[in-house]
Known about the structure:
The complex is a heterodimer. By secondary structure, chain A is α/β, with parallel strands linked by helices. Chain A is built from 9 helices and 13 strands. Chain A folds into 2 domains: 2-203, Rossmann fold (3-Layer(aba) Sandwich); 213-267, no CATH class. In chain A, strands 6-7-8-3-9-10 form a 6-stranded mixed sheet, with helices on both faces. Chain A has a 4-stranded antiparallel sheet with strand order 2-1-4-5, with no helix packed on it. Chain A has a 3-stranded antiparallel sheet with strand order 11-13-12. In chain A, β12 (234-238) and β13 form a beta hairpin. Chain B is mainly alpha-helical. Chain B is globular, with a radius of gyration of 22 Å. The interface between A and B is medium-sized, with 30 and 29 residues.
Amino acid sequence: MIEVKNMSFQYPGQKDWVFDGFNLQMEENRIYGLLGKNGTGKSTLLYLISGLLRPASGSVLCDGKETFRRNVEVLRDIYLVPEEFEFPSISLEKYIKLYSPFYPRFSREALQSSLNDFELTPDIHLGALSMGQKKKVLMAFALATNTRLLLMDEPTNGLDIPSKSQFRKAVANNMGEDRMIMISTHQVHDVESLLDHIIMLSQRELLLNASVQDITDRYVFEYRPVDDGSPVVYAEPTLQGNAVIAKRMDGDKETQVNIELLFNAVTKGLVK
Amino acid sequence: MKRLGYLLKLDFQQNLKAFIWTSVTMLLVYVFFFWWAHNIGIPLDSYSLSKGLFSPEHIGLITNAQCEAVGRFGSVAMYFCFIVIASQLYGREQKKQLRTAFLMLPATNLEKFLARWLYMIGFSIVAGILTFFVADALHIIWLSSADRPIIAASKYFFEPLADGDWRFVFVVYTILIFIHSAYLFGGIFLHKHHFAVTSLLLVILGGPFMKLINFIELSVFSFSTSPGYLVCVCLVCGVILFTWLSYRVFCRWQLTTRKNANL
Lengths: 272, 263
């Protein structure tokens, strides 16, 4: 379990705190969506959780151990897929031989299955791949490590349209009961159907931290005619009428969360 | 232990290009030294040589002097190579993407530090020493083809560091290891231009220190007086301090911060 306790963080030389007394808990068997405007600290939060940055005060704990100390037991349980990364110019087979021994739960079968999902073969050379293909290989490797915590920073950036659904399939196939995945993204539609839990950040504070189930229990997301007079929490005009968030009443059917709409409502303070 | 092996394998694979380039560069540098000594530094007059005006003893003496010059130059070049490699130990990891991958590898800080340090020693030995022996072997082949007396420059290579009083050798090694550890620290602590900045700092700080020693008439190389020991003890403490600081900064490395915040 990941626990962020009263954490504050500020980049050196900058006046503003990125986080100030920030708290968060993450549980197994969930896929978390980390959303927020540019510069609200999504990537910074991922780096803090993975121990790549050290909080000024407070703590980030993975099973009670501070992640910034980079204990081997903690590192074995965390894999970070950064937005920008570099592969060595070697074959995938060699890459697997070099890196997989560090991960005791690494699974060749899982890697093969994810590569299949991404329509890639294991006999590729990493130096000859496009950026999108490299990203798919890294994600396939990350899923195959079977670390308990998988952090992904903008995983669908640079992926073409078919690859985005391949990505969802690969993540869903590799989700286990003892695993938690955190996906930081702007492309909310790419991950909408995957998420179990939504975390929305604004400057220094947590705007929303709720499970998708909780949100769908409380609200309905639907399109209503423009002249519909029924009460809503938030509405936005669209070509199909008004996209609305309304309180869910007894007898209302459960709807799928429209994350973009929810995000706009949350940033305007209409949904908490 | 197993992980240390994996890390060494990884370091070797990742730095293979730098390893090859540095080794080839050093080999060319040594070959150039040999060429320079035979043709420019201490040349044998080709006219007199062709007319047979030199006695075999004379040719032997000059060839010996040429080999000695190269051997001594080689020692300096080898040490230069050692400190450059030390200062570039974490050069790759200055790049954010590569630092992320390195720091997130499931191994202890000690294993990562030790693996890179061992790699550096191996790299330095191959690039700094073995390439000299290769260059000398090529040189010997050339000597034999030119009907010159065969004298290996390798025997002069270590002479500056192995000859004389053991106490002198001890002090010289202590100074060299001290400088090496300073470059190691510079390589980890400084953001860029590790070698140049560390060299500058050593000159700025080391110059007045040597002046002070001269001023108070301490002989660094003398063990007959207690100040000689004192300087040695100070240098050993410096080595321990720089190595400890290097490891400490390494353990506290972060993705994007000023490194002085890691001290």
